[in-house]
Amino acid sequence: MTVTISDIMQTSPVIPVLVVHDAAQARPMAEALVKGGLRVLEVTLRTPAALEAIAEMKNVEGAIVGAGTVVSAEQFKQAMDAGSEFIVSPGLTETIARPIIDSRVPFLPGIANAGDIMRGLDLGLTHFKFFPAEASGGLKALKALAAPFYQAKFCPTGGITEASAPEWLAFDPVLCVGGSWIVGATHAETETRAHAAAGLKA
Ligand SMILES: O=C(O)C(=O)C[C@H](O)[C@H](O)COP(=O)(O)O
């Protein structure tokens, strides 16, 4: 059965957004997150270690590993070669979206206004990352934005914390939230934070 972005967004209430500087840390970090109950992992392509980190994390049983910060066709190809199971981009252009949609890999593009959502709907997309969530007006903005687009579902990301996540998750079109707060100073702390996040109600 084909896994869709909807399936991925409903796997757990929080998608940890990971910035990995040392590929050697990738596997234990993924193990801590999965053990804590968060299986969907977004590795941002912001560091030289990111692609290797994706390949390492794929070795962890139960992990569903995707690439974030994908902004070019070249990065999309690199992310796929590393074994990414889904792709996240901070924004939505037709140039980045077309090849990803054609490849049928689950895709979560960023949107921040009505025009972005309409461009996504034109491309056949209904699931979006609301980014940057807090800076774009927070939950109030998303509620106003979601009203005309009954079919759209969201993963707000950017500025969300353990304290604010429940409020976002209580809004029906929000299937999950993304955030970097899950990663602690140690893998044990990461596991504890993942456990708390996994228990939030989506
Ligand atoms: O790199 C990207 O493509 C991004 O999407 C940015 C991240 O989603 C946010 O930086 C995470 O936000 P924080 O939880 O506030 O740290």
Structure at a glance:
The protein has 202 residues and is an alpha/beta fold.
Written overview of the protein:
The protein is an alpha/beta fold. It has one domain: TIM Barrel (Alpha-Beta Barrel). Helices cover about 40% and strands about 15% of the residues. The protein has helices at about 5-10, 25-35, 50-55, 75-80, 95-105, 115-120, 140-145, 165-170, 185-200, and strands spanning about 15-20, 40-45, 65-70, 85-90, 105-110, 125-130, 155, 175-180. The chain has a 4-stranded parallel β-sheet. Strands 4-5-6-7 form a 4-stranded parallel β-sheet. Strand 2, helix 3 and strand 3 (about 65-70) form a beta-alpha-beta unit. Helix 2 crosses helix 3 and helix 2 (about 25-35) packs parallel to helix 9 (about 185-200). The chain is globular. The chain starts with a helix and ends with a helix. The model has no long low-confidence stretch (mean pLDDT about 95). Bound molecules: 2-keto 3 deoxy 6 phospho gluconate. Pfam families: Aldolase. Homotrimer. Belongs to the KHG/KDPG aldolase family.
Overall 3D shape: globular
Unreliable stretches (pLDDT < 50, length at least 5) are: none
Give the helices and strands as they follow along the chain: HEHEHEHEHEHEHEHEH
CATH architecture: Alpha-Beta Barrel
Structurally, how many domains make up the residues?
Answer: 1
Question: How many E strands?
Answer: 8
Number of helices: 9
Briefly note the structural class of the backbone. Answer: alpha/beta
* SS strand fraction: 15-25%
Overall residue-averaged pLDDT value: 97
State the distance separating the first and last CA atoms: 24 Å
Which molecules are bound in this entry?
2-keto 3 deoxy 6 phospho gluconate
The largest beta-sheet arranges its strands as: 3-2-1-8
Keywords: Carbohydrate metabolism, Lyase, Schiff base
Pathway: Carbohydrate acid metabolism; 2-dehydro-3-deoxy-D-gluconate degradation; D-glyceraldehyde 3-phosphate and pyruvate from 2-dehydro-3-deoxy-D-gluconate: step 2/2
Pfam families: Aldolase
Organism: Sphingomonas hankookensis
